[in-house]
Design goal:
It is an enzyme of class 2 (transferase). Pfam families: MoCF_biosynth, MoeA_C, MoeA_N. Catalyzes the insertion of molybdate into adenylated molybdopterin with the concomitant release of AMP. InterPro entries: MoaB/Mog-like_dom_sf, MoaB/Mog_dom, MoeA-like, MoeA_C_domain_IV, MoeA_C_domain_IV_sf, MoeA_linker/N, MoeA_linker/N_sf. The chain has 418 residues and is α/β, with parallel strands linked by helices. The protein has four domains: 172 residues, MoaB/Mog-like domain (Molybdenum Cofactor Biosythetic Enzyme, Chain A); 47 residues, Alpha-Beta Complex (Molybdopterin biosynthesis moea protein, domain 2), CATH 3.90.105.10; 77 residues, Molybdopterin biosynthesis moea protein, domain 3 (Molybdopterin biosynthesis moeA protein, domain 3); 68 residues, Beta-clip. Helix content is 18%, strand content 29%. It is built from seven helices and 26 strands. Strands 16-13-17-21-20-18 form a six-stranded mixed beta sheet, with helices on both faces. Helix 1 crosses helix 6. The radius of gyration is 30 Å and the shape is elongated. It starts with 16 loop residues before the first strand and ends in a 10-residue tail after the last strand.
């Protein structure tokens, strides 16, 4: 990083962006330097992002596959038993009418078979033959029924989860080309913060140091516990040193607090000292407007980012969903997240010429959003009961029945988007 000092005014600072514009700007900044593609064994790809479309190496299924236990028969019955085929075997063809082989579910249907008779719908004759009436619909899966060789099943940019890994394995892949998860670090600023025990005597408990790494992991980052540092002393040299150390290893450094220009707010001068360039410097959103994203180029030529999260806890989470989530999507080569919508069940106030992100609980069955209480920018009680934020556009208010965008909070493992 550059080390010469500079005033905060010397850092290129675009004017405050409206909320939608800010999302687009940081997404484009991330996409411009998306992580390089790497080849990984399937078992090591969970949480990464497909760097190329997923296609089958063969038709799926690759051969006609019995969907029931029973008898693969040729011609009219009754049939003489001439063998057995189990899953994993390659049977000889049936060449004579009136013959059959016992067949297991998942086994390859022999060439020449005209039908598969279910075992529960068959019977043995006194002569040891198999008799019964096959169903009219074929009882096997045809080659290519699920997919054909080379067909695009999932596009590049798809997040890899266990379902994708299983699909890739069924397609015959041993490895996948993926973009790795970005590495993130967290610096907590504020001499007033306690890291243990109850708040008191003018000091408050740090709620972001323990919480932000979990948010970042759910949004697709790698966060080493050793990369969470703080509280960092409220001095400019301490801020510069902490940022420089964190940027040595991280693609993204998040900071908490110090995003304004108060007497102990040193983030802007520290960014200037490191030669940073703002992508976004404040956003017209409430709560959380003094958020920022800055870009730096390291000595290795790699672009890295600093996301300045406000010190108030709810404002910090709003900065995460507003700036960090779109940035991470770009870095991973994913699409800019599309926001779902819900119908307001109660009115939500506007915030003048700022976008209002209002905490809501979602009734997924009804498709409605219900505002929650305890939503001050310094409060976390409402956040703990919410599913996301309703987006109220500048110059408007939210009325009952309005259909509005929702910024969802990250799902827990195993949950499905509504």
């Amino acid at each position: 990083m550059r080390t010469e000092t500079a005033s905060a005014d010397e850092v290129s600072a675009p004017p405050p962006a409206d909320w939608a514009q800010a999302r687009s700007l940081v997404y484009a900044a991330g996409l411009a330097v998306a992580r390089p593609a790497i080849e990984r064994p399937l078992a090591e790809t969970d949480g990464h992002t497909l760097a190329e479309p997923l296609t089958p190496r063969t038709d799926l299924p690759a051969f006609p596959t019995s969907s029931v236990d029973g008898w693969a028969v040729r011609g009219a019955g009754p049939w003489r038993v001439v063998g057995r085929v189990l899953a994993g075997g390659a049977p000889a063809p049936l060449t004579e009418d009136g013959t059959t082989v016992e067949i297991a579910t998942g086994a390859m249907v022999p060439a020449g078979a005209s039908a598969v008779l279910r075992v529960e719908e068959s019977r043995r004759t006194p002569e040891g033959l198999v008799d019964g009436v096959p169903r009219a619909a074929p009882e096997w899966r045809q080659p290519g029924e699920e997919a054909t060789v080379g067909e695009e099943l999932l596009p590049a940019g798809t997040p890899v989860d266990p379902a994708v890994i299983g699909l890739a394995a069924s397609c015959g892949h041993d490895t996948l080309r993926v973009r790795r998860q970005p590495r993130a670090a967290l610096l907590v600023f504020g001499d007033e913060l306690l890291t243990a025990g109850p708040p008191g005597a003018g000091r408050v408990r740090d709620a972001l140091g323990p919480a932000v790494p979990g948010w970042l992991r759910r949004y697709g980052c790698q966060v080493d516990p050793n990369s969470v540092v703080g509280p960092v002393a409220d001095t400019l040299p301490a801020h510069v040193a902490a940022l420089r150390a964190a940027l040595d290893d991280a693609d993204l450094v998040c900071t908490t607090g110090g995003t304004m220009h108060g007497p102990v707010d040193h983030l802007h001068p520290a960014l200037a000292s490191l030669g940073a360039e703002y992508v976004v410097n404040t956003v017209a959103v409430r709560p959380g407007f003094p958020m920022l994203l800055a870009r730096l180029v390291g000595a290795d030529g790699q672009v890295r980012f600093v996301a300045g999260l406000p010190g108030n806890p709810q404002s910090a989470v709003i900065a995460l969903v507003s700036l960090v989530v779109p940035l991470l999507a770009g870095l991973a080569g994913r699409s800019l997240p599309t926001l779902p919508h819900a119908v307001l069940a109660e009115p939500v106030a506007g915030r003048g010429d700022h976008t209002h992100l209002a905490l809501v609980r979602l009734d997924r069955a009804a498709g409605t959003a219900h505002p929650v209480r305890h939503v001050g920018s310094a409060m976390l009680r409402g956040l703990a009961t919410a599913d996301g934020f309703a987006v109220i556009d500048p110059g408007t208010t939210g009325s009952v029945g309005d259909r509005v965008p929702i910024v969802p909070l990250p799902l827990l493992p195993g949950e499905r988007a509504w």
